[in-house]
TrEMBL record:
Residues 8-87 form the GST N-terminal domain. Coiled coil: none annotated. InterPro entries: Glutathione-S-Trfase_C-like, Glutathione-S-Trfase_C_sf, Glutathione_S-Trfase, Glutathione_S-Trfase_N, Thioredoxin-like_sf. The lineage of its organism: Bacteria, Pseudomonadati, Pseudomonadota, Alphaproteobacteria, Hyphomicrobiales. Keywords: Transferase. Residues 90-211 form the GST C-terminal domain. GO terms for molecular function: transferase activity. PANTHER family: GLUTATHIONE S-TRANSFERASE GSTA (PTHR44051:SF8), GLUTATHIONE S-TRANSFERASE-RELATED (PTHR44051). PROSITE patterns: GST_CTER (PS50405), GST_NTER (PS50404). It comes from the Bacteria. This is Glutathione S-transferase.
Length: 216
């Protein structure tokens, strides 16, 4: 049965692989499962047909027969549960991997996205510099904690799993900020994720959409 996900017709990330369909593409590539992509415009994302799939009018969505899912983390979890390669067989290791999935999306990502919101929407406010400083210190606190936990290991809990996939995806949002560079083991961790063949295939697929839209 054909699996279809949605992605931006014109991604605002500039082809950097930060749009959240990238996480889903990467998961599919890791488990070796084919999928199709339906591109949607910002206008279409707010229309009834898309809102029936995603009540908040965002991407990605996942469709397979009569199953429709939204939220990138939920979709990655579904893929990981259905196909071998992203969750360990051992029950305890599996539970820990799922814990890291939640940690990536609930503990790490909100503060990092808060920085993006401040930079994009609040730069003209008189309190912007102070707010940015506070947000970046919160990010550093979380990165320090994560750095201490990772130590000199390659991955968060043994072999690469869905927890690493989501954590690397989240940390990639800090590339170019200089903040991630303050934590060499985390920078190396992200680089290992980017070096995975499955990541490269997913990145190239998303970048191709951006290039096509830019040339169109």
């Amino acid at each position: 049965m054909t699996i279809t996900i949605t992605a931006f017709e014109r991604s605002p990330d500039g082809g950097k692989g930060l749009a959240r369909d990238m996480r889903v593409r990467w998961a599919f590539e890791e488990v070796g499962q084919p999928y199709e992509v339906r591109l949607v415009s910002f206008k279409a994302m707010k229309e009834p047909a898309h809102l029936a799939l995603h009540p908040f009018g965002q991407i990605p969505t996942y469709e397979e027969g009569d199953l429709a899912l939204f939220e990138s983390g939920a979709i990655v979890f579904h893929i990981a549960e259905r196909h071998a390669g992203l969750l360990p067989d051992d029950p305890n290791a599996r539970a820990r991997a799922i814990t890291w999935m939640f940690a990536a999306l609930n503990t790490m990502e909100p503060t990092i996205v808060d920085r993006e919101v401040a930079r994009l929407l609040e730069g003209d406010e008189i309190w912007y510099e102070r707010r940015l400083c506070v947000v970046e210190e919160r990010i550093r606190k979380r990165l320090s904690e994560l750095s201490d936990r990772l130590g000199d290991a390659d991955w968060l809990d043994g072999e690469f799993n869905a927890g690493d996939l989501l954590m690397v995806s989240v940390l990639l949002r800090l590339k170019g900020s200089g903040i991630l560079d303050e934590y060499p083991n985390l920078s190396a961790y992200v680089a290992r994720g980017e070096a995975r063949p499955a990541y490269k295939r997913a990145f190239d697929a998303q970048l191709a959409v951006f290039i096509t839209a830019s040339n169109g």
